[in-house]
Write a structure and sequence with these properties.
With about 475 residues, this protein is of the alpha/beta class. It has 17 helices and 23 strands. It has two domains: about 270 residues, Aldehyde Dehydrogenase, Chain A, domain 1, CATH 3.40.605; about 200 residues, Aldehyde Dehydrogenase, Chain A, domain 2 (3-Layer(aba) Sandwich), CATH 3.40.309. The N and C termini lie far apart (about 80 Å).
């Protein structure tokens, strides 16, 4: 028995123009812990309903944009009030549809509200005006909202990821359509709908459905001025191609192949190893900014392997609602097969793959999308487990002798999302961080739990374009406007 107890099915609808709307079809949401239990159903919009959401957002835009940033901030702050009371129920739904352990689902919900509040705190900077003094002209440079924005959200941390762009878009004066992930839409729908109900009709809409059915309407409609997408590089390329026809702007936060570089003077005590462990294996490794490659100085190699092995040995796999479980399943059978394929290739090439963890009491790991966490020891640099984003509970550990070589190997990748440097010297950390081609570099830690959410976030190279969060994230949803007055 992988689920702790029978739980009710959840049903969500569309939310368009300030009202709940049904659909003729529905998305069936399956619990990844057993692959058969139905968590619930989300309304599956058709193209006409998606277009209606765009039209509603377009109608609402002039009045919303005309509000001051402070007025919008006040409305957004008031809209957060229902979330705390619903947090436990929302977290349970998220765990059932996503697979992650309950503690992580609670954090996901908390981060949603936290990121809204951080954006709201920037309200006084939204309408900033810079004056260029005469002669020859007195010119005022300001920022204006774009219009209708579509935000497309992935399954892994849907609440937190939505809130990396949603409050910024709204605070900037845009109106928004949120498209939740088809395989895990329920928690996000109920959360965003609670916020939307407190805002003027059409300002915030939620449309669930199959990508092929509603994607074109939400991306290619010429009334949509920007699309914000978080997902795989392949998905990002599809979004970019679809948006090109209407010259719609895009922000793409795509995957990562994040390197951690552990120097010979790094602190590898229990707390440091715990940070490396969680930065790698939280959410069953299904985090874009998780550690995907560990480059460790040869003199500390065995220490890192032993430290991670000790922590991994305590892993208990099972349903995320079980309080004794520390790691849930992968979200989909497809991802499970993909990670297994990477590990099989590594074994065939002669790399040692060490697996860890046990099933929690009552859990049958042959059901659902379970995979024991693993370390891949000293694989060749050209193996797929090194070159590709695993997005699962495994990581290659690669020794190095020369720091310059480690930096070169870390940068030799398609990605550029995050990285980390582990050293006892802040000067060494700063010097190496400046050479790493990633959008964010952690020092002596790694991962979402240690991200400064006041700072802009985004990737280099194939990890995307544009920035989320911080004032830069707000500006990404605005146009620069210059007005010149005669001297």
């Amino acid at each position: 028995m992988t689920s702790p107890r029978p739980l009710p099915e959840i049903t969500t609808e569309l939310f368009i123009d300030g009202e709940t709307r049904g659909a003729d079809d529905a998305l069936r949401v399956i619990d990844p812990a057993d692959g058969v239990s139905v968590v619930g159903y989300a309304a599956a919009a058709d193209a006409k309903q998606a277009t209606a959401a765009v039209a509603a957002a377009q109608r609402a835009f002039p009045d919303w944009a005309a509000c001051s940033a402070r007025a919008r901030a006040a409305m957004l702050l008031a809209a957060l009030k229902p979330l705390e009371a619903d947090r436990e129920a929302t977290a349970q739904v998220l765990t059932r549809e996503n697979g992650k352990i309950l503690m992580e689902s609670v954090i996901d919900s908390i981060v949603f509200e936290h990121r809204f509040r951080l954006a709201i705190d920037l309200a006084d900077q939204v309408e900033q005006v810079t004056t260029l003094a005469a002669p020859p002209y007195r010119t005022e440079v300001s920022y204006l909202p774009l219009g209708v924005v579509t935000i497309i959200v992935p399954f892994n941390w849907p609440l937190a990821i939505a809130a990396a762009s949603l409050p910024q878009a709204l605070l900037a004066g845009n109106t928004v359509i949120v498209k939740p992930p088809p395989t895990a839409p329920l928690a996000l729908v109920r959360t965003v709908e609670q916020v939307a109900q407190a805002l003027p009709p059409g300002v915030l809409n939620v449309v669930t459905g199959a990508d092929a059915e509603i994607g074109p309407a939400l991306i290619q409609d010429e009334r949509v001025r920007k699309v914000c997408f978080t997902g795989s590089p392949a998905g990002g390329r599809r979004i970019l191609a679809m948006a090109a026809g209407s010259l719609t702007r895009v922000t793409l936060e795509l995957g990562g192949n994040d390197p951690a570089i552990i120097l010979d003077d790094a602190d590898l005590g229990p707390e440091a190893m715990r940070r490396l462990f969680t930065g790698t294996f939280d959410s069953t490794g299904q985090i874009c900014m998780a550690v995907k490659r560990v480059y460790v100085h040869r003199s500390r190699y065995e220490e890192v392997v032993e430290g991670l092995s000790g922590l991994l040995a305590d892993t208990r796999l099972g349903h995320g609602l079980d309080q004794n479980v520390t790691m849930g399943p992968l979200h989909s059978p497809r991802q499970l097969a993909y990670v297994r394929e990477l590990l099989d290739q590594a074994r065939e090439a002669g790399a040692e793959v060490r697996e860890y963890g046990e099933a929690a009491e009552g859990t049958d790991l042959s059901r659902g999308n379970f995979l024991r966490p693993s370390l891949v020891l000293d694989p060749a640099d050209d193996l797929r487990v090194v070159t590709e984003e695993q997005f699962g509970p495994t990581v290659p550990i690669l020794p190095f002798d020369d720091v310059d070589d480690a930096v070169a190997r870390a940068n030799d990748t398609w990605s550029g999302l995050c990285s980390s440097v582990w050293t006892g010297s802040e000067d060494r950390a700063a010097e190496i961080a400046a050479r790493l081609r990633t959008g964010y570099t952690f020092v002596n830690t790694h991962g979402a739990a240690h991200l400064d959410e006041r700072a802009p976030f985004g990737g280099f190279n194939g990890s995307g374009m544009g920035r989320e969060m911080g004032i830069e994230g707000i500006r990404d949803f605005m146009d620069t406007h210059s007005v010149g007055f005669p001297a």
